[in-house]
Design a protein that fits this description.
This protein is an alpha/beta fold. The protein folds into three domains: about 5-200, 3-Layer(aba) Sandwich (Rossmann fold); about 305-475, NAD(P)-binding Rossmann-like Domain (Rossmann fold), CATH 3.40.50.720; about 510-605, no CATH class. It starts with a strand and ends with a strand. Mean pLDDT is about 80; it is low at about 480-608. Bound molecules: uridine-5'-diphosphate-xylopyranose and adenosine-5'-diphosphate. This is UDP-glucose 6-dehydrogenase. Pathway: Nucleotide-sugar biosynthesis; UDP-alpha-D-glucuronate biosynthesis; UDP-alpha-D-glucuronate from UDP-alpha-D-glucose: step 1/1. One of its GO terms (molecular function) is UDP-glucose 6-dehydrogenase activity.
């Protein structure tokens, strides 16, 4: 009986081995990990990862030919084929920091294999590692081999989370790279025989070692590039009035391009895309190809830009401040049908909003409060280390509240940001949500999943990525020069109180007088006597503001009435900061001058 052992019971190792066990009853599969809680979870009814269909597969084979264990050395020493699927974080220090893969865990796994092995083994590289890692690992193994023959293979995984089981059942291709020596070819055949239990022969591709390793990085870079391309188009669509969904549909009908992976979004996330591209960039730099490195780096820069742009859109739309406003975040996972939050765009968006002092109420059907708090406090790239090496008790972010219901998250909120495309968000009762929100009520759809027209009918101000903008949003530029160094977008440090895109120089206070041309259409506001004292009343209106009135005060202002009602019907009062109230009329368009003035509202005074 062939024995397989997989080191690393993570997102890759767990599902892949479970499917191998299911499809190959004659093979014994052991999945080992140094993390005791993780192995305990694999042996329980509550598996450590959420993946549709996984429970069934595990239940069918666990205890028969599929075992989860912490006895790493025993299972490695008994195995014929050892898969290595351990963490390969991006280095945060030293040579190649921020780009190169940290192979600490891989190296220690390789040394352990060499230590405990008593028979020949095929060692399969399963985690994404930079090209030529296999060569390094081969050296470690052969220099410590005690006469044992090790064959190194690269067998990159192409499964996507949320559809991992389907991807494993019906893969587009299985790629096996090995040495082109008789022993190498024999090892490739042995692994091919495992997959041949259920994968048609023509879908099992064999290549040399380096091609297999590079193909994995290249495939992920190409996929991420499509998303950055369509996201770049989404910014242009917003600026010009085109609709990105129509554009990507039209582009995708070209059979040379194809329709998949062309959905504009708030940005791509996941454990692979960014990391693999950073690896690719580093490899290019190391090989004296700075132009090629720069080309791929741009895919990440656009992704960071898209997240920053989204945050800026939210803040700019809400009078340039979200301070102390409740913002509901629907969805935190990096995509639907997974509880995985690695590199999720939600982290940068939330950090950006927190940087502007928003209060966040977050709901995701699969992500726990502990995970969200961890993600919002952890340093970049820290997630990619084994659990026991991650910060144990992260400090909690106080302005963040995690709830288990979308309605609770949105209650009394000023805005809703949809950051993951969970199906359940499409069928929410938005009328109920609207009724329980502060007005004006905003929806910022980072995944283009809601019916914007219907929501507008209800009364929401809606932003959908890459779609023609609401009148409200039109004059509020959300594009901002993204962080030129790449890496994390600089959202959390965006200066408050000035419109995104503007230069950082303070503007002189604006004095609006009754006679000033700007005040020609000013409407006088009155605070009813007997209510809270308003000692800092300011009124601003501008010729082009079409009825906008802005009122500021240091206390809570009630019963605001218009002495000279304007033509536009309705009107609502919203609280800003808890210190200001802005009265605006429905259908109001905020032209650039007003936006600018709203930002410096405190300095505006009426002079009699
Ligand atoms: C990816 C690759 O698809 C897979 O082959 C590889 O082995 C691992 O990396 P995964 O990270 O699970 O898989 O997710 P994927 O479905 O590729 O999505 C990645 C990110 O791109 C998600 O945040 C997703 O929301 C986003 N995305 C995807 C878009 O924004 N638009 C799209 O059109 C498609
Ligand atoms: P992936 O998404 O690539 O599967 P994960 O981080 O989910 O990555 O899984 C990697 C697993 O490898 C973790 O559970 C970690 O505890 C485990 N691991 C890391 N180093 C070792 C090692 N030397 N021996 C056994 N398990 C290891």
């Amino acid at each position: 009986m062939v024995k397989i052992c997989c080191i690393g019971a993570g997102y890759v190792g767990g599902p892949t081995m479970a499917v191998i066990a299911l499809k190959c009853p004659s093979v014994e599969v052991a999945v080992v990990d140094i993390s005791i809680p993780r192995i305990n979870a694999w042996n329980s009814d509550q598996l450590p990862i959420y993946e549709p269909g996984l429970d069934d597969v595990v239940k069918q084979c666990r205890g028969k030919n599929l075992f989860f264990s912490t006895d790493v050395e025993k299972h490695v020493s008994e195995a014929d084929i050892v898969f290595v699927s351990v963490n390969t974080p991006t280095k945060t220090r030293g040579l190649g920091a921020g780009k190169a893969a940290d192979l600490t865990y891989w190296e220690s796994a390789a040394r352990m294999i060499a230590d405990v092995s008593k028979s020949d083994k095929i060692v399969v590289e399963k985690s994404t590692v930079p090209v030529k890692t296999a060569e390094a690992i081969e050296k470690i193994l052969t220099h410590n081999s005690k006469g044992i023959n090790f064959q190194i293979l690269s067998n990159p995984e192409f499964l996507a989370e949320g559809t991992a089981i389907q991807d494993l059942f019906k893969p587009d291709r299985v790629l096996i790279g090995g040495r082109e020596t008789p022993e190498g070819l024999k090892a490739v055949k042995a692994l091919k025989d495992v997959y041949a239990h259920w994968v048609p022969d023509e879908r099992i591709l064999t290549t040399n070692l380096w091609s297999a390793e590079l193909s994995k990085l290249a495939a992920n870079a190409f996929l991420a590039q499509r998303i950055s391309s369509v996201n770049a188009m989404s910014a242009l669509c917003e600026a010009t009035g085109a609709d990105v969904t129509q554009v990507s549909f039209a582009v995708g009908t070209d059979s040379r391009i194809g329709p998949k992976f062309l959905n504009a979004s708030v940005g791509f996330g996941g454990s692979c895309f960014q990391k693999d591209i950073l690896n690719l960039v580093y490899i290019c730099e190391c090989n004296g190809l700075p132009e090629v490195a720069e080309y791929w780096k741009q895919v990440i820069k656009i992704n960071d830009y898209q997240k920053t742009r989204f945050v800026n859109r939210v803040v700019a739309s809400m009078f340039n401040t979200v301070a102390n406003k409740k913002v509901a975040i629907l969805g935190f996972a990096f995509k639907k049908d997974t509880g995985d939050t690695r590199e999720t765009p939600a982290i940068d968006v939330c950090k950006g909003l927190l940087g502007d002092k928003a209060r966040l109420s977050i709901y995701d059907p699969q992500v726990t409060e502990d995970q969200i708090q961890r993600d919002l406090t952890m340093n970049k790239f820290d997630w990619d280390h084994p659990l026991h090496l991650q910060p144990m008790s992260p400090t909690t972010v106080k302005q963040v509240n995690v709830v288990w219901d979308a309605y609770e998250a949105t209650k009394d909120a000023h805005a809703v940001c949809i950051l993951t495309e969970w199906d359940e968000f499409k069928t929410l009762d938005f009328q109920k949500i609207y009724d329980n929100m502060q007005k004006p009520a905003f929806v910022f759809d980072g995944r283009n999943i809601i019916n914007a027209d219907k929501l507008r009918e209800i009364g929401f101000i809606v932003y959908s990525i890459g779609k023609p903008l609401d009148a409200w949003l039109k004059d509020m530029p959300a594009g901002q020069k993204s962080n030129s160094t790449g890496g994390t977008p600089n959202t959390s440090r965006r200066p408050r109180g000035r419109p995104p895109g503007s230069k950082n120089k303070s503007k002189p206070p604006i004095i609006v007088t009754r006679d000033s041309p700007n005040a020609l259409r000013a409407h006088v506001l009155e605070v009813s006597p007997g209510n809270d004292i308003v000692d800092n009343l300011a009124v601003y209106a501008c010729r082009r503001s079409r009825g906008v009135c802005v009122l500021s005060g240091t206390g809570t202002i009630k019963n605001v009435t218009l002495r000279q009602p304007v033509a536009a019907p309705g009107g609502s009062v919203v609280t800003l900061h808890g210190q200001f109230k802005i009265l605006f009329l429905s259908g109001t368009v905020l032209p650039p001058p007003v936006r600018r003035h709203v930002a410096i509202l405190r300095k505006v005074r009426i002079q009699e």
